[in-house]
Structure formats: structure tokens, C-alpha cells
Predict the structure.
Amino acid sequence: MENSTNLSPLLLAFIETTLFGFLIGLEWHSYRRASQRDLGFGTTRTFTLLAIFGLALIIIDPTFIAYGVGLVVVGSLLALEYWKRLQTQDNHLLGPLIALIAYTLGPLSLHGPLWLPLLFVIVLLLLLGDKPGIRRFSDAFHHDEARTLVKFFIMAGVILPLLPNREIAPFISVTWYQVWLAVIVVSAISYLSYLAQTYFFPARGVLLTGVLGGLYSSTAATVVLGKRAHGSGAEETRIIGASIVLATMMMYLRLWALILALGHTVTATRLAVPFSILIGASALVVWLMLQKKSTKIAPKAEDLPQHPLEFSTALLFAFLFVLFAIITHFVVQKFGANGLHVFSFMVGFTDIDPFVLSLLDGKFHVSEGALEAAIIMASGSNNLLKAGYAVGLSRNPVLYLSAGWLALTFLLSVAWAQLILR
């Protein structure tokens, strides 16, 4: 057990075990009272003493033989108690399972770091304390989500370790491992956003749609919100406009997080200033747009996100990653930094994530400033595309302010990129 005090490790283990066992007992007692039914085994004192009993056995016999015998005895008694309850058609197994967890607190406290038994207790308290929330989540859980998780585990735990960490081709300085790692990181961020939208905020408002949608895809969020603004009233459209700006704010946060997560700390540091300025200015625009008092706007059916974890989508991302790496190589080789600057503007009208990541993972003969300028230019031209979507899909003059701000961020990005390249 790790500790930085002068107290005896045995004393610390005893205090931890007793305290954690007592907390589990309190929560179980509260859970039984809230259930308003007899759930059988377990009181606060029982769980506390059971935890102390496990610690005592491991201290008496460090070889774990006595502890194993005790586990068999405790397990047998719990099985007998459960069997007796089955005779009354009461088949709740929760009490015996929690008792076994309490029995393990002693060895965890004595031989593990403090955070390990603490983590056990925290998870247990959360599971017992939020039964209604867990029940709602279980009821809302789609039957195909398990297959989705399997897909992600295959992508991250099976395919990634098998890929060689060597360059794809002599003229492509990106490895197979880097390509698929980028796919996994982007998919993970998109999947977390999807889960948040689907399960934790099912009745989200328009502003939350912009925030979470921006983490998934700011372009897709702008398309959805732009369609919704068509035919909407002035008040709802004003909130939709603020949501579109929020989605672009989250795009900058997502890009910066991707760059940092893949280990490009130098580039992330250099981009922190321009991205912070654009995020801060966008936040001010949102604040000004929301100054008028408004009521919450309920979401419509088309706001529901599309599932991001599909192998076809992952393969398309990987293909674009390699394609952009190839094109960037030849553009830089033939036209230098100026060619990269023009190409990054063109890429902004497509999916910029694979371009940005291939740009960072490749070894192109341009300065760090040229790479930074290319990323800023691509994100800026992507904002210009979203401005066009907002105006064209909504055909609502109220949304012109948001579209104008997105167009202005493009001009600011061009100015910043030119300043870097000088």
C-alpha cells in the first residue's frame, strides 16, 4: 500500500477497510429503505464486519490460504441464504454480490494503492444510488449498441496492434499505424458525442444540439440546423443561429484536442493562440445573440444524430487520410508552401479532419509555420462552406448574422495565415 505518512501500513489498511465497508453498508441500507421491500441479506454492521474479517485473514496468513478458505465459507453462507430466499420466489442476488465485494476490501487496502479500493466503493455507491437513472438508461439502450461497441473494440484492440508501423510508400511518409490511430481517435470523439446526444440529453435544446453536434461534425450540425431554420419564426431562428456558431466553436476545440491527443504538442501550442481568439470571439457573438429573453425550443426529429461507428465510414476516413497525404506530398514538392496554402483552402470544402491529421503525421519539407497556416486556412474555408449551407438551406434572413460571422472567421483565418507566412 502506498502512503506518505508515518502511520503503520496495517493501521491505514484497517482504517480504509472499516471506513469503506461502513460506507457500503450505509448505502445498501439506504437502497433497501428506498426500495420499500425486503431485499434480504445485509446491514451496515454486517458489511463493515465482513470487510474487517477479510482484512484480518489476510494479515494472519499472507499466503492467502486462510483468506481463500474464508471466501469459500462466506460464499457458501451467502449461497445458502440465497437458496432459502428462492423458496419464497425472491431471487435478488444484489445483496450477496455486494457482500463479496466488501469481503475483498481488506486485501485491496493492504496490498493496493488507495485509489483502487476507493474506486471500487465509488462505482458501487453510484450503482446503488442512481437506480432510476440506470433503469432509464437500460430502457433507452438500443439493441444494436452492443454490436457498435464490438466494432470499436475490433478497430482499437484488434486491427490497430496488427498494423505495421512502417511507411505506406516511399513517397508517403505516413505509416499504416498512424492512419488507423487517427481513425480511432476521431471515431472515439464522434462516438462519445453520439452517446451524449442519444442517451444523456435525449430532450436537448437547440443550443445543446450545436455544442454536441460540433463535437461530432460542425458541418453536419450546420446542415441540420440550417434546414430547421427554414420556415421557423424569428425567435427560434435567432437561437438556431447561435447554435450554428456554437457548433463552429466546438470544431476548433475538437481539432485542437485531436492534434494534442495524437502527440503533436508543438503544433497544438502554436495553434492555441489563434484558436483561442476565434473561440473567444465566437462565444461573445453567441452571448450577444442570446441577450433577448427566450423560451426553450424543443428538438425536432431530424436533430437526432446518425451513428458514427461504421466500418465504411472508418475506411473512407482512412482513404481520405492517405489521399490527402499523397496530394500534399506532391503539392509541397512541386509548389512549396504557397501550393500547400492554396490546397488547404480547397480542402476546407471537404472533410478537414483527415487532411489536418495527415498533414501533421507526414514529413513534408515545409516550416512549422506553413503547417500551422495550412490548418488555419482549411478550418477557415470550412467555415465559409458552412456559411453557404446556413444561408442556402435556411433561406431565412435572420440567419444571415451567423453566416456573416462564419464568413468573417474565414477572412480572419486568411489574415492570420498570411501573417504567419511572412
In short: Confidence is low (pLDDT under 50) at residues 1-5, 295-305. The chain has two domains: 9-137, 144-421. The first helix runs from residue 9 to 35. The chain has 16 helices and two strands.
